[in-house]
Each structure stands twice: as structure tokens, then as C-alpha cells.
């Protein structure tokens, strides 16, 4: 039963030019490893990784150490990235979305606004928003596409416009080093997890329309991720390995609830 639904929702795509792929592979998050294969924190990677280096050995990386140089932290760098409000269509910087000293924020990067799995994730975030609010945590949902595409999702799902943002050029995705490509999108083994949530997916897409898909079809090859910040400090990061491979929401809530909010 699942296969016909999935197949009918996959838009035709054309691969982006090689220069775009190269740019995506030379910037983003670098995992800092400790003995025993554990990961302590993330730092901003400013140059290409040498051949043979694992750019992301683990998709889920809780961060327990602050960057010794705040000006080079991923939170500082992300603060200067411009995205667009779905509500107004106006540009806004990440650093203006929450208190950069002590404020808590969950930044959920969806794939694109025409992705059925992202409609499912958005519905889960919407239904969990009250728990974020009670913990004093700002929810920020970002998707690939233009504000008008974001509004299609918001109106038909529905999803609150004031927490939804558009990143048509995938600037935040590039900075955070999120996965991109045909294999990750359609053929990664992690993507089969979505079929265990088929009922949830079916409910989320009952008002779905492919019209929310970005006009730039290269955007459908982008994967998402989930990040938790306290001020500029990155507390939790998880890259989606494949389509529908979303961060466990219990993990995100545990991070939010364990950290005191000023």
C-alpha cells in the first residue's frame, strides 16, 4: 500500500550543476571526536576536508562543550544567515529570532515545502509546540523554497505561519553541512523508517499538493536536520541521513527540558 503513495509524490528533478555540489561539500559542521569514537561538540568547518575524512560519522551529536572561540562557533555563524518569514515574506536573520545570550531555540530544518515527509514532521512539531512553549523554547521551522511555497504548507496542513521560514538558496543547510544528493534523497537505507509511520504520514498529507515543491527542483535533493541552541551555544545537532529520517523528538525535548532557561 505504501509504495503507490510514495511514488506519486516524487517530483521530477534535474541535478544541480557540479559547482553547487562542490560548494555544499566544503563548508559546514565538523565533528570533533574523542577517544572511543564518541563525539564531544561541533565546530564550524571553513575548508574542505582531506580525502578519506568522515564528514559526518554520526547523524546525532549532542554537544556538551562550548566553542572556546565564540566568534568562530556555529551559532555565531548561523546568526548572520538571512532567511525569509513565511508570514510577511520579509528577510530576517537567525540571530533576531531568539535571545542570543540565554534564549532557547529548536531549529528544525525541513527538506522542502513539497516533501510529504516534511508535512508529517511539521505536523508533529505543530502538535508538540505547546510543550516547547511551556519549556520557554522558541520553535523555528525552516524549509527549502520561497515564502509563497511555505504558505501553501502552512495553509493546507495547517502550520502556524509565525514559526515558519523559507531558505530558498539553502544557505543555512550549506552552513550546517546537511546532506544533499540523489542517493541520500531516494536510496538511503535510513529512508525506510518513514514506512513505520505510514498512518502519521497519510494523515499529514491528506491536504497535500505538489504545488509546494520549489521551482528550483534541485531543492528536492536536500536533506534536513534538527538543532537546539541556548543563546549561540549549540546543545544538540542531528543530520537526517535520508528522507524521513527525522530526529527523535523525545531526544530534542529531553535536551530542552534539562537545560535551565533564564
Automatic annotation (TrEMBL):
UniProt-listed CDD domains: PRX_like2
InterPro entries: PXL2A/B/C, Thioredoxin-like_sf
Region (Disordered): 50-72
Top-level lineage group: Eukaryota
Protein name from the UniProt record: Thioredoxin-like protein AAED1, chloroplastic
Organism: Urochloa decumbens
Lineage of producing organism: Eukaryota, Viridiplantae, Streptophyta, Embryophyta, Tracheophyta
Amino acid at each position: 500500500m505504501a509504495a503507490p503513495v510514495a511514488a506519486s509524490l516524487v517530483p521530477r528533478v534535474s541535478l544541480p550543476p557540479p559547482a553547487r555540489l562542490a560548494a555544499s561539500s566544503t563548508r559546514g559542521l565538523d565533528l570533533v571526536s574523542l577517544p572511543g569514537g564518541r563525539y564531544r561538540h561541533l565546530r564550524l568547518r571553513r575548508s574542505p576536508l582531506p580525502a578519506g575524512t568522515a564528514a559526518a560519522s554520526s547523524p546525532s551529536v549532542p554537544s556538551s562543550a562550548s566553542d572556546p572561540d565564540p566568534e568562530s562557533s556555529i551559532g555565531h555563524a548561523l546568526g548572520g544567515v538571512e532567511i525569509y518569514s513565511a508570514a510577511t515574506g520579509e528577510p530576517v536573520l537567525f540571530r533576531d529570532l531568539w535571545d542570543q545570550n540565554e534564549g532557547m531555540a529548536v531549529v528544525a530544518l525541513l527538506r522542502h515545502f513539497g516533501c510529504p515527509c516534511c508535512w508529517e514532521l511539521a505536523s508533529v512539531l505543530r502538535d508538540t509546540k505547546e510543550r516547547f512553549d511551556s519549556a520557554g523554547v522558541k520553535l523555528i521551522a525552516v524549509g527549502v523554497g520561497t515564502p509563497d511555497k511555505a504558505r501553501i504548507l502552512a495553509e493546507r496542513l495547517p502550520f502556524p505561519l509565525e514559526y515558519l521560514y523559507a531558505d530558498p538558496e539553502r544557505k543555512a543547510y550549506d552552513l550546517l553541512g546537511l546532506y544533499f544528493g540523489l542517493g541520500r534523497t531516494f536510496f538511503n537505507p535510513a529512508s525506510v523508517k518513514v514506512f513505520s509511520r505510514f498512518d502519521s504520514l497519510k494523515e499529514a498529507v491528506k491536504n497535500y499538493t505538489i504545488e509546494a515543491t520549489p521551482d528550483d527542483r534541485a531543492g528536492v535533493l536536500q536533506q534536513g536536520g534538527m538543532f537546539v541552541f541556548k543563546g549561540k551555544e549549540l546543545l544538540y545537532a542531528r543530520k537526517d541521513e535520508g528522507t524521513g529520517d527525522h530526529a527523535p523528538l523525545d531526544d530534542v525535548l529531553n535536551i530542552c527540558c534539562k537545560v535551565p532557561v533564564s
